[in-house]
Amino acid sequence: MFATLFKHAEASVDNAIGDLGNRVLIAIPFLAALGFGAASLSFYLNRIYGPELGNLIVAGAFCALGVIIWLVVLMRRSAAEKVEQPSAATQENTDTVAQKSLFDDEALMSVLTSAAPIVLPATLRTAMKNWPILLALITAIFIFTRDTSNASESAKGPTS
């Protein structure tokens, strides 16, 4: 009786971990591109306005970007809280319906498919030039996301 429940829970966790891993893999090239773009913007603004003011402008741009992301997360969280207040009868129906993915949006997918032939070769060229940095980043992500509960239990040894 509980075996199917555990299998369903295990499959849900595996799907969530796989989805998170895919999102991390998708985000890595964009983070590298953002870093190179920020460095390029910093050099450009330093040439025009001087080092002090140029760095302040770049810092202000990143602060503005952080505030925008914070507002988006706040709005999504409040929208999710409004959705999570259904009655008991509708809660059973929502358990069977899968959540809609970010990539189910047609407008987003059309933008991604039209930009991919332009962005992907440049990203690959940049990644090939900076493979040691990417390897260190992947290693760090692997180390930080590793499950250490098994290692700590085996280090304690058997208890008698």
Name the poorly predicted regions.
Answer: none
Strand fraction: under 5%
Largest sheet: none
Distance between the termini: 33 Å
| Helix-strand category | mainly alpha
DSSP summary, beta strand count: 0
Put simply, the count of helices is: 6
Provide the gyration radius in Å. Answer: 22 Å
Topology pattern, helix = H, strand = E: HHHHHH
The share of residues in helices is over 70%
Mean pLDDT: 75
What best-fitting shape do the alpha-carbon axes yield?
A: extended
Helix and strand arrangement:
Elements lengths: L1 H48 L1 H33 L4 H9 L9 H24 L1 H15 L3 H8 L4
Helix pairs in contact: 1-2, 1-4
Explain the overall architecture:
With 160 residues, the chain is mainly α. Among the domains are: 26-86, no CATH class; 105-144, no CATH class. Helix content is 86%, strand content 0%. It has six helices and no strands. The chain has helices at 2-49, 51-83, 88-96, 106-129, 131-145, 149-156. Helix 1 (2-49) runs antiparallel to helix 2 and helix 1 packs across helix 4 (106-129). The radius of gyration is 22 Å and the shape is extended. The mean pLDDT is 75.
